[in-house]
């Protein structure tokens, strides 16, 4: 195990140290006293586990391809931008624009998430990204979502008085699946999406995602599945196809 | 480590955006400038060295009954004309240079002076009070607008009681060093790290923007600047700072001080919900928000923003209604913190009692406890 003390370290120097440790063959790296350093884990192609003690800065795990990052505190904005493979586990809450254009791997957040979570997530063949948020979400959940899976649990929140999710839910969504524990507020859904019951296949798929999530965050799976889940799907693969000029079918 | 391949691109890019941070001790505890400097310096990379600034409240207790005018002079003539103007209209209790430190980071700074003043009972003053229905505050606003607009090279950086703004071209920690901010103590501090996008990086264009004891720091851009500016001009506010954020300071002065709106209602006017959301509200709220949007359509701020606005009453954080800029808040004992990044709060408050992110258009209001100032 390689330990790096990030106290007062500039982000560029910290990331240089991480890359050097990865290149030297480290499989476990622990970063202590992290506070606000940007770009941690970006573009790392190896199956290394990076544990972060402290609050990492924006753009954590962007372009990441196979590494695992465990954050033992809260995290900030833009986690997993265009992430390809690997996993991010956050034991606190996280900010806006999580999983932007994500195309593989897992993001597991224990508590609340911000605005525009899962924006433009996509999938192709075996590459299927999954983002699970254990708390509440802000507006534009699943905006322009093109593929992959978003799961919202509303179980662990720092702000229990807030609604489960915000407005404009699924705006522009044209692919992928969103599962929500305990139902959604249909008045806040965008016109592009509809609410459906789970099929048996969905249940098996969801069970796999949730068990992995519960293992990572030490959560009791039985409690998670006490409530019924609903599925949100886009009504159309081309929601704006007729916006300017109706197209022949 | 030997690299077998040369990179095909130069990957280093200047990735920047504005950063802001602020805190309040609602119990009126005075905090040294070092604390806010530490917080904003953590977000060094959100700016590009073309603007940094601070607002501090509670820093002039010995002159707290006087308006503290911070003046910036680009030339000697501006100073001479301004001082003649001030002497004509104000009783000046005390004046001095604002202490600065020559540092290599700051090139060609303008001159800074401060004046602790009260309006003189001139014939013009009596006319305004007795026949124009104006207050002392209105008169101060009129003088600030006149100096900024008509004396070339003179700008009022701040004009409130027991507060001051310190700003200029440089990274915020360099500006803090220049103004020796570690020597001040205040119960509210805000700070800004600027990455100018649409408007020039000059000394007057750095944040905060102020009027009376209002101060604004802003991350984003006010796309509705033209509408807001023309609306404010009808009420005698003149925009002279060549940047969008200025309208926020004047809008708050108009809505809260002149029209008597609460900070909550003023926030709803500036970042009001969309019509479809208003229409779905319970009837009394629907009517209230409809009325606000109808009355204050021209005060609506469009475009992405996160702002902190402060006065001697408290500190307020507000996002645009679709939250296109970050804002994180935290509480610890009598302190409330607001910043662009949680790390900037953790840098000065490692273990907050609560950390949360407000929703778009939802103001976070931290008021001074009654009777502490």
TrEMBL record, chain A:
InterPro entries: Archaeal_gltB (IPR035710), Glu_synth_asu_C (IPR002489), Glu_synth_asu_C_sf (IPR036485), Glu_synth_lsu_3 (IPR012061). Residues 17-186 form the Glutamate synthase alpha subunit C-terminal domain. It holds the Pfam family GXGXG. This is Glutamate synthase alpha subunit C-terminal domain-containing protein. It comes from Geobacter benzoatilyticus. The lineage of its organism: Bacteria, Pseudomonadati, Thermodesulfobacteriota, Desulfuromonadia, Geobacterales.
UniProtKB/TrEMBL annotation, chain B:
It comes from the Bacteria. Gene3D superfamilies: Glutamine Phosphoribosylpyrophosphate, subunit 1, domain 1. InterPro entries: GATase_2_dom, Glu_synth_lsu_1, Ntn_hydrolases_N. Keywords: Glutamine amidotransferase. Residues 18-373 form the Glutamine amidotransferase type-2 domain. This is Glutamine amidotransferase family protein. It comes from Geobacter benzoatilyticus.
